[in-house]
Write a structure and sequence with these properties.
Two copies of one chain form a homodimer.
Chain A (H helix, E strand, L loop, with lengths): L3 E8 L3 E3 L18 H4 L2 H4 L11 H12 E7 H4 L24 E5 L7 E3 L2 E6 L3 H11 L4 E6 L1 H9 L5 E7 L1 E2 L4 E2 L6 E10 L5 E7 L1
């Protein structure tokens, strides 16, 4: 059965982006520090068109995660659209003409828009909420799982819908002191299913729904 | 040299107490769930005058932590004093006539009060701030280390003063969804020094200041 999962980096104080996210610094102040552990990995470099990179347990973990999902759900903020209607020259995402997904991506938004095909990636824009986006993603995933990639609001909506089967946090040894918090006001019991420390000091913690 | 350290349980979403802490539920809604992993341990039961309990790595860890410190700093909220002056029948702490500390405890407060001796524990009340409390605790620790026990505000003050040498979090697999957050608005780089999962699903993460 198709699972829905979350896999995201956060600071030890629970932020997935720093304060003041903006067009030239979409992850806000210090937010890029949450992802430094991943940029050097072979598993990250390959889908981004770069050669080489580090092999090892972290790269294998990222490879397995990428292999696992057949569709992605994300919020409009992560896609990078401005608030308001899409306009005449609509935003095409942060990733240029060949986004690294190569699978269907469902973007939560309140503004309708025709699907956008870029390289092997199709962005579909979903205006009727998280449950609809997850249903469409499950159907599109071709037997694989669905990744709720972010941001925090999309993840919180999926958690609140009771739709998240498991969740992996990559906890970066850093207090950001402010920004976008991963979790909202939901109370939830989880079960630890795995943990591993990376030489970078990042703790990879995996949980499933009880 | 005497180190200052923090050792505290928190939820996966970063709370050390639930919402609405009150006299009959001092840890707020659901806050006691953060400490269930410790109540059954031999290392917790012994200083609380109870026999038996579970032996093993968690109990050994708590034993080593207790053995490590020779003085404690805590906030007035953790001691349990009401806001405002102490009054004619001043609060004597949550722990009855024989508190489990058996060492000097320094309570941060804005209201002066004579020291209180209960069993082997002396509570001293410090009105001139965290740095003074830490200095007094260092002097009283007899060569051992100083534990900043909580609550969140006392820990944040110690972090902000740059006084915390290392920090262990016991991350409970639970989203509380609200309450008292451990960390404040401070930005800080840390270094992971240890991690271990307990069979209870609690992750013990240790960090030191970079």
């Amino acid at each position: 059965m198709t699972s829905v999962f979350v896999d995201i980096s956060c600071s030890l104080d629970g932020y997935v982006a720093g304060a003041d996210p903006r067009r030239d610094e979409p992850l806000g102040d210090g937010g890029m520090l949450l992802h430094e552990w991943v940029f050097g990995l072979a598993a990250w470099r390959r889908p981004h068109g770069q050669e080489g990179g580090e092999q090892g347990p972290d790269s294998d973990m990222v490879d397995a995660m990428q292999e696992r999902h057949g569709a992605v759900v994300m919020g409009k903020g992560m896609f990078g659209g401005e608030p308001g209607p899409w306009g005449d020259d609509p935003w095409r995402g942060w990733w240029g003409d060949d986004p690294p997904f190569n699978e269907p991506v469902f973007v939560l938004t309140s503004h309708e828009r025709e699907p956008l095909e870029l390289g092997g990636t199709t962005f579909a824009f979903v205006t009727d909420g998280i449950e609809s986006a997850l249903d469409q993603a499950r159907n599109a995933a071709a037997g694989k799982d669905v990744l709720v990639a972010g941001g925090a609001s999309a993840i919180q909506q999926a958690l609140r819908a009771g739709a998240v089967d498991d969740l992996t946090l990559h906890v970066v040894p850093l207090l950001l002191g402010g920004g976008v918090r991963l979790f909202g006001d939901q109370r939830l019991q989880l079960e630890l299913t795995g943990m591993r420390a990376s030489p970078t000091g990042v703790c990879h913690l995996s949980y499933k729904r009880v």
